[in-house]
Design a protein that fits this description.
- The chain contains 9 helices and 7 strands.
- The chain has about 300 residues and is of the alpha/beta class.
- The chain has 2 domains: about 90 residues, ATPase, nucleotide binding domain (Nucleotidyltransferase, domain 5, 2-Layer Sandwich), CATH 3.30.420; about 130 residues, Nucleotidyltransferase, domain 5, CATH 3.30.420.
- α7 packs across α8.
- It is globular and about 60 Å long.
- It starts with about 20 loop residues before the first helix and ends in a 9-residue tail after the last helix.
- Bound molecules: zinc ion.
- Zinc ion binds next to loops.
Length: about 300
């Protein structure tokens, strides 16, 4: 069981994911569950990338092709003989941060993932707001990119996004987005880590790229904060581990939100890469306690 104080202290067993073979995936989960030796009524909660429809149980994930469009919770529950629940990994991250991490003590927490992509999860009074088809808290998609940016000498074209739209926060706010902005601003083709390292050393091109990135991304994030009333935004993903980048984004966001706060609002997440696991475990613990009230599940 994971408590608020010991969330980072547990053993992680790993297996390669059989992404193409559903039967092998079921067997891998069965093996891991058996190794834990948990009682058969203890639910297995799986945090996975991609939206999961809380009504139908269907999952859309490009990372694990054999799960695409399936209802894996039902099949796994039959295979394992125990209750199985899937949760979106950004939602699990947000729940972990809200209950035991950087959002602890706040009533409304918007967990923001900024790294490979831009996404998030919304937690209100320690409960996930999953919303229609699981999209609650997903602030990364929608045509919101400004083309005129104060700190940019040139107009920034709206970039295509993997979701099919143009100008999403995901398209310019992610690690790849930082690289695209850097190239657009004349900095050349450079890895996002190298851009951030150059920014830390005060290199002019990188300083400009990060200033443009922070100004552009702070707009949609400020809107998300105004809309949800979140008083804290723990940031996970690759950017969440760069405390100085999060501080830069926080300054930009606080100049744009309606909430007047002298405290940081956008803060580094506490749990890093383990947040998904911790959120899934917290959800599992809650589901075990609430089996008599299925209609009230988080
Ligand atoms: Zn998009």
């Amino acid at each position: 069981m994971i408590g608020p104080e010991d969330g980072e202290d547990f053993t992680v067993r790993t297996r390669p994911t059989p992404g193409q073979d559903f039967g092998a995936l079921l067997d891998a989960f069965a093996e891991l569950a058996a190794a834990e030796g948990a009682a058969p009524d203890v639910p297995l909660v799986i945090a996975a990338a991609g939206p999961i429809d809380p009504e139908s149980g269907e999952i859309i994930t490009a990372n694990i092709p054999c799960l695409m469009g399936k209802r894996p919770a039902e099949a796994l529950a039959r295979h394992l003989g125990r209750p199985v629940h899937f949760v979106n990994d950004a939602d699990a991250f947000a729940l972990a941060e809200a209950i035991s991490g950087a959002g602890r003590g706040h009533r409304i927490v918007l967990g923001a993932i900024i790294g490979t992509g831009v996404g998030g999860g919304l937690v209100v009074e320690e409960r996930l707001v999953r919303g229609l088809q699981g999209i609650g808290g997903e602030w990364g998609h929608g045509p919101v990119a400004p083309t005129r940016v104060k700190v940019s000498p040139i107009e920034i074209p709206r970039m295509p996004c993997g979701c099919g739209q143009v100008g999403c926060a995901d398209s310019f706010g992610s690690a790849r987005g930082i690289e695209r902005l850097h190239a657009l601003l004349g900095g050349g083709e450079t890895d996002s880590r190298a851009i951030v390292a150059a920014w830390r050393q005060g290199a002019a091109a990188a300083v400009r790229t990060i200033a443009v990135w922070a100004e552009m991304l702070s707009g949609p994030l400020a809107m998300a904060i105004n809309l949800t009333g979140a008083s804290v935004v723990p940031v996970g993903g690759g950017i969440g581990t760069a405390v100085d980048l999060v501080e830069t984004l926080d300054r930009e966001v606080r100049s744009r939100i309606l909430l007047r706060s002298k405290q940081p609002v956008v803060v580094p997440a506490r749990f890093g890469a383990k947040a998904g696991l911790i959120g899934a475990a917290l959800l599992g613990a809650r589901l075990s306690q609430e089996t008599t009230r299925p209609a009230d599940r988080p």
